[in-house]
Amino acid sequence: MSVAERLVILLPGFEHMPVEAHHRRFMREAQKTAPVYDIQLAETAPLDVSSAGDAVATGQFSLTSSGENWTTRTDFILYGLGDITMFYASRNPLVRLLSGIVALLDFVVTGTFFRFVATSWRYALFFLYPIVLIAIILALSYGIGSAATAIGPDGPIIPLILSFLSVVALFWFAASKMHFLLIMDDWAFAHDMARRRRPEVLARVEKVVADAAARIGNTPPNTEILVAAHSLGAICALQILDAALSQDASRNYGLLTVGSSLLKVALHPAARALRQKVGTVARSNTIWVDVQALTDPMNFYKSDPVRDLGIANGTSPVPVRVRFRSQLCDEAYKAIRHDFFRVHRQFVFGVERRTHYSWHAILCGPEHFSDIAMKGGLPCERSAPLPLKLSEPAAS
């Protein structure tokens, strides 16, 4: 039996992108994926973006997907979490660097880093990445200054100038080519969420939670409700479902977390409120599927949020582990495998081969989310592909 109506609360990861860019990517990648899963798509309601006051921008759009003997309409509510991340990106680069260093130090001093090691050692390597990068930059700059001292004229002025210029140039290279400042913003945001500081950021998150919970509460009873989150979007997802459950705990909800960074914040000892919300969701009748990938260093591979947070009497999410190599042709996989940010984004990108996981096939396809959870993923069998038909959005 297929789903006729579905509401998806869509929560992106930590990316400096507006709602419109997320929508364009979703549509482009959905178009790529649709024929792989024998789906025909039509955008029946184009993107409508709204923003009130200091709230994040919110985009609404609808897709109708169809196949042999089924039709599903999915209404999407896409929250512009990029409006929150841009708060961090708009700061002075030196402030971004220093706030990231403060955050990293806090995660070490509080023992959170060692919890990362115990939970998923690969994620601990990701934590160390910016620290190692800073150490390399400082060591190279010091070496350049020392070399200038050895071969240049007497006096410290020229070596100091060369060392300073080297630091600036190397940090610029790391920021432009190695995602360095984005990573520092990411850790600063996680630090703020754990310690519940920066009222302006918390206020925006709380408005997202309140708005999404209200929309969920107004959804007709026969509509499937699914909260879908990538990366740090999972932090908002758990808070939204906690709020929805406080309104109506009898209804069935679905939670899809992919490449989740929930534990990045929840393992911090100061994040007690977030852990309580995870416990509320885990003890409810919410169906939770958590998708992980070995090749992504930015997710907690083989983790179990309920177990790892020590939540008693909670139901663990259904783990779905995906191999991106199996979803893409060899050429496409080779093009992304050395860019760990692009690999992390593959969770929400289109696929070229059918496997038991696809972001777009789950959100737009006919299968009930409860069936997907029960089977541990999407069915991999397929019939002959149907031609793709994706209508153009209506002119605004």
Structural account:
The chain has 396 residues and is of the alpha/beta class. It has one domain (1-396). It contains 17 helices and 8 strands. The chain has helices at 19-33, 82-89, 93-109, 112-119, 121-151, 157-177, 180-195, 199-217, 233-247, 262-266, 272-282, 305-308, 324-327, 330-336, 340-345, 359-364, 369-375; strands spanning 5-11, 40-50, 58-67, 70-79, 224-230, 254-258, 287-293, 318-322. The chain has an 8-stranded mixed sheet, sandwiched between helices. Strand 5 (224-230), helix 9 and strand 6 (254-258) form a beta-alpha-beta unit. Helix 4 crosses helix 5 (121-151), helix 5 (121-151) runs antiparallel to helix 6 (157-177) and helix 9 (233-247) packs across helix 11.
Give unreliable regions as ranges: 383-396
- Number of beta-strand segments: 8
Tally of contiguous helical segments: 17
Question: What class do helices, strands and sheet pairing give?
Answer: alpha/beta
Give the spatial strand order of the biggest sheet.
2-3-4-1-5-6-7-8
Largest sheet: 8 strands, mixed
Question: What is the rounded distance between the termini?
Answer: 36 Å
How many separate domains?
1
Assign a percent range to the helix content.
40-55%
Strand coverage percent: 15-25%
Q: What value does the Rg take, in angstroms?
A: 22 Å
Average pLDDT taken over every residue? 92
Give the SSE string. EHEEEHHHHHHHEHEHHEHEHHHHH
Keywords: Membrane, Transmembrane, Transmembrane helix
Organism: Phyllobacterium sophorae
Protein name: Alpha/beta hydrolase
